[in-house]
Amino acid sequence: MTQHAPIFIVLLPLTASLLCMLFSRIKRDLGAWIVMASIVGAFLSACTVLHRVITSGGQTWHYWMGGWQPPIGIEFALDPLNSVLAVLVTFISMMVALYSRPFVKEEDWLHVGGYYTLFGLLTVGLCGMIITGDVFNLYVYLEIMSLSGYGLIALGGKKSMLAAFRYLLIGTIGASLYLLGVGYLYALTGTLNMADLAQRVVPHLNSPLFAIAVACFIIGFGIKMALFPLHGWQPDAYTFAHPGAAAFIAGCMSKAPAYAMIRFMYYIFKVDSPVMHSALNVLGILGVAGILIGSIMAMAQYDFRRMLAYSSVAQIGYIAIGMAMGNMYGFIGAVLHIINHAFMKCSLFLVIGGIEHRFGEVNLYRLGGMNKKMTISTITVTLAALSMIGLPPTAGFFSKWYLMLGAYTGQQYFYIAVLVISSLLNAIYFFRIIEQMFVQREASLTEVHPHKGKLGLPFAMALPIFVMGIGILVLGFYSVDIVMDIIKLGLPEVFLR
Q1: Rounded distance, CA 391 to CA 427, Å?
Q2: b/e 386-422 (16+ beta carbons within 10 angstroms → b)
Q3: Residue 91 predicted with pLDDT over 90
Q4: Which long-range contacts (CB under 8 A, 24 or more apart) does 37-40 make?
Q5: Does the pTM exceed 0.85?
Q6: Both 285 and 307 in a single domain?
Q7: Range of the domain at 333
Q8: Does 139 share its domain with 125?
Q9: Domain count for the chain
Q10: What is the largest CA-CA distance in the chain?
């Protein structure tokens, strides 16, 4: 069975999602538990894949669906980088699926079944985007991710419908541009397989058609990953999304497109042509603008979720400048920040959902005394905030450290200045939260769902918050191991020459 582990990463949650409504109709919670069990199976399959890839010395595992060899057949190509990201996505999905239970426990079978169907499909789309070895099938998984994301955002309430529709319009443009770029590449090379494409595109790296394709990919993926100034959909989507799924959406939905862009830029296009140099310069400019403007906009917010939405624009900027540096350390910093930011942002949105579940609001200036009412949540927020700022030994410090090394190695000192300024801005708006929780007097919040005890929340919500908070420290302590034993095993060829 282990030889089929790659397909199980997407097949298990896909099958469970398709059957979820049927089983929910039979018994209200049965479909939900089946989807959650399938995500656990996907996580175990991803761990199996990661173990095999690492023990083989980083050799890519090519899995052919149905035994059909590419370029005719569909392929999953699993290397150390996308294997660890598959583990990351399935783990976060597993945590958030459990966390969501209190939010839907009073709903009827239709809403429960619909929610977990969309949740499972979102997991399928994200994992498929990460592990596929075919550029057209990446589009298929991109659409699965997007459509299920639109649905989960729309389930958040009246205001969320408009946010979902706005994301639908903008996201459709992004997906269409990506597909257009795929069409240009197919016209140039005659293949859709990524490995073949990397070989056949070499003679065309300076052609105008290739430049147009690269522009389509940057804009298309830029929209999906909320790269400045293509982030217009994100603040409302994050703010009004279903509170149970918001952590999964905020933590992972922008990371899969970011990794897809890295895969195209470094593994297929090789970043050593004039066209790619220009593309990386554009990414660097947009990344810097996103870091500064996103941080400033975050400082101006009073809604916790909206502040984190603009903070994500800045954090995506970190990934963009890591790609733009064009050297090994910048690349490592970008990949490591994808992993770290997924954990950090997911942790923060889990806490936000918990506060909203208990008190019905998440106003930044009404969090006084939260350290006494929701101790575990407060500690998790503190760890995530320190990590976002970049203080050791949290995870965020190490990804920023590698970005600093990348900027220094490439003599791109302007990036170092931007990273320092951004960390200071992060400190301003995150310490505002910490001050409210620990220092300010208790706010007179009305408890919508009162909960006594040290956890402050139902166990199904408190456990994922605790695990994700601990995960931020674990990622920090093991950052060197992740870099040396995983990321460096999967470095692109351009850094190995």
Answers
A1: 10
A2: bbbbbbeebbbbbbbbbbbbbbeebebeebeebbeeb
A3: yes
A4: 38/12, 38/13, 38/120, 39/12, 39/13, 39/90, 39/93, 39/94, 39/97, 39/120, 39/123, 40/94
A5: yes
A6: yes
A7: 134-495
A8: no
A9: 2
A10: 67
